[in-house]
Design a protein that fits this description.
By secondary structure, this protein is α/β, with parallel strands linked by helices. It contains 16 helices and 22 strands. The strands form 6 sheets. It has a 7-stranded mixed β-sheet, with helices on both faces. A 6-stranded mixed β-sheet has the order 11-10-9-12-13-21, with helices on both faces. The chain binds NADPH dihydro-nicotinamide-adenine-dinucleotide phosphate. The site of NADPH dihydro-nicotinamide-adenine-dinucleotide phosphate has 25 residues, from helix 8, helix 9 and helix 12.
Length: 515
């Protein structure tokens, strides 16, 4: 059997590849023209050799002093060392956050908290180039995404929640909203700065103080944010950031003086956290995995749908909890849609994330790359047909070709499990009822997409889909005003909008005593 290299991993079947259409006027495979490299400058960025834990507005070494390395996944080069927190450090952070909550932050009028949040948002905008470059160097995502999506949306979250800080009574009429206290927040590596903003902005607006634990592979924009916290003159202890392995996250969640737990990450860890806080009074929100269905009906505008499918699964290398990783195509348009999709896939530019032309950057870690390769191999072994464009991958770094599978059945692992990589499984359906049944046949329920010209069909599908977010004739659109969260194994609670604010407030009549 022929062997092929898939994202540096040898698999036992050669993928089908596609030459560029003749209408493009060249005979090359894949992209028929060369783009001159357009790398974003890194001159304005100063990554420090070492970062301590950010507690009480100071960077402090861990106790005992210990560090771990952070690398650039696109080059495998060392970027910095960061402190590895101990259990004692977790306690120090909680003590700092508690003191700041009880003596300063929760006592400030909402209008004063709002001023700090506006200040943070404005500084993030002023330093947006710095944030975008550091985010891309540390996570592997294309600079055009960190520059145009992650950083502006992160700033927008602070602007949005700043607006609510002095209007909590209006947000929840008839209630007396009170802060919960100290929030433990654990975030993943796929949107490090954006997830920070989703967590910290509503928490501070509601009068809580926070301890954030970023993912171990992507702590650098969080530590850059710590600089912003100081620049904005936030009272010490309101925002604390600690780094360390998953067990440190668990210590934080278990700490008896923590009142709120917010987690984004894998379903497996989310379940462990839910068990750890069961029986306590901690308020919890879990935003976990997904396996979204993107459903295209035969009356959909095809070219628009192709862009939505591409954006749905290849945005951020597919490392997106709400990625449209299962494509359901109505049988009558299967062939024309697939031809267009394969041609479009072949135009995606994979490579240096700092290059402004790049569409698909580096996978975040060697471990994640291995997971993607293993699941792709399972797709081949289970009999699905693989297609990959014939693009050249960089020699170093963790890269994976954009991939699509046809001939996928509902029982295949690639149709069931979250791959968290640039891999699309294509399935078909005949009737809306069949599409609904197949789309909902998953343990997850985070997001979905529907492509059709009929408004009535959109309403029917949206009502029937067991997913927290359903996009119609678009995909992967985010806005701070809009709540986001899941059903079933995708978690519970909402982030964003007024719902995201409520998740950080005690809205009970008796101050939580009767909860
Ligand atoms: P994890 O869920 O392990 O990591 C997410 C965050 O949780 C990180 O900060 C991590 O810290 C922390 N963490 C890990 N273990 C624990 C623990 N026992 N207690 C408390 N916190 C913990 O995701 P992975 O990075 O391992 O990715 C595995 C898979 O999860 C991916 O392939 C993907 O399918 C899914 N995933 C989903 C995400 C989503 O947005 N829904 C985001 C990330 C992953 P540390 O980095 O130090 O381990």
């Amino acid at each position: 059997m022929p062997r092929a290299i898939i994202g540096r991993v040898t698999v036992t079947k050669k993928p089908e590849t596609l030459p560029a259409p003749a209408s493009w006027g060249m005979t090359a495979r894949g992209i028929p023209w060369e783009y001159a490299a357009a790398p974003e400058s890194t001159d304005h960025v100063a990554i420090r050799p070492e970062y301590g834990l950010f507690i009480g507005n100071e960077f402090r070494p861990s106790r005992p002093r210990d560090t771990f390395d952070v690398i650039n996944p696109a080059t495998e080069e060392h970027l910095a060392r960061v402190a590895r927190a101990s259990k004692a450090d977790v306690n120090r952070a909680v003590v700092a956050a508690r003191a700041a909550h009880d003596t300063v932050w929760s006592r400030l009028p909402g209008s004063e908290r709002a001023k700090y949040l506006y200040r943070i948002a404005r500084i993030m905008q002023e330093r947006s180039r710095e944030f975008a470059v550091v985010e891309t160097m540390n996570s592997g995502k294309p600079i055009k995404e960190s520059r145009d999506v992650d950083v502006p949306l992160a700033a927008a979250h602070f602007f949005y929640y700043a607006g609510w800080a002095d209007k909590l009574e209006y947000a929840f009429p008839g209630r007396t909203p009170r802060s919960l206290g100290v929030a433990a927040q654990i975030i993943p590596w796929n949107f490090p700065l954006l997830m920070l903003a989703w967590k910290i902005a509503p928490a501070l607006a509601a009068g809580n103080t926070v301890i954030l634990k970023p993912a171990s592979t992507t702590p650098l924009t969080a530590y850059l944010f710590a600089d912003v916290v100081r620049q904005a003159d936030l009272p010490p202890g309101v925002v604390n950031i600690i780094t360390g392995p998953g067990e440190i996250g668990m210590e934080l969640v278990r700490h008896p003086d923590v009142n709120k737990v917010a987690f984004t990450g894998s379903t497996a860890v989310g379940k462990m956290l839910a068990r750890a806080v069961a029986g306590s009074r901690k308020k919890v929100t879990l935003e976990l995995g997904g396996k979204a269905a993107n459903i295209v009906f035969d009356d959909a505008p095809l070219d628009q749908a192709i862009e939505g499918i591409i954006n749905g699964i290849y945005f951020n290398q597919g490392e997106v909890c709400c990625a449209g990783s299962r494509l359901f195509v109505q049988e009558s348009i299967y062939e024309p849609l697939l031809d267009k999709l394969k041609a479009r896939l072949s135009t995606l530019r994979v490579g240096d994330p700092l290059d402004k032309n790049t569409d698909v950057g580096a996978i975040n870690s060697a471990g994640q790359l291995a997971k993607i390769a293993e699941l792709v191999q399972s797709g081949i072994d289970e009999g699905a047909e693989i297609f990959q464009p014939d693009c050249v991958l960089p020699d170093r770094g963790f890269f994976f070709r954009p991939t699509l599978f046809t001939g996928v059945s509902q029982s295949h692992r690639i149709a069931q499990e979250e791959i968290f990589g640039p891999v699309l499984s294509v399935l078909t359906f005949r009737t809306p009822e069949e599409a609904i049944e197949k789309a909902n046949n998953t343990p997850y329920g985070l997001s979905a997409g529907v492509w059709t010209e009929k408004g009535s069909r959109i309403f029917k599908m949206v009502a029937a889909m067991k997913a927290g977010v359903v996009w119609a004739n678009t995909f992967n659109r985010f806005d701070p005003t809009s709540p986001f969260g899941g059903y079933k194994e995708s978690g519970y609670g909402r982030e964003g909008g007024i719902h995201g604010l409520g998740a950080y407030l005690d809205l009970s009549a008796d101050g939580g005593n009767g909860r």
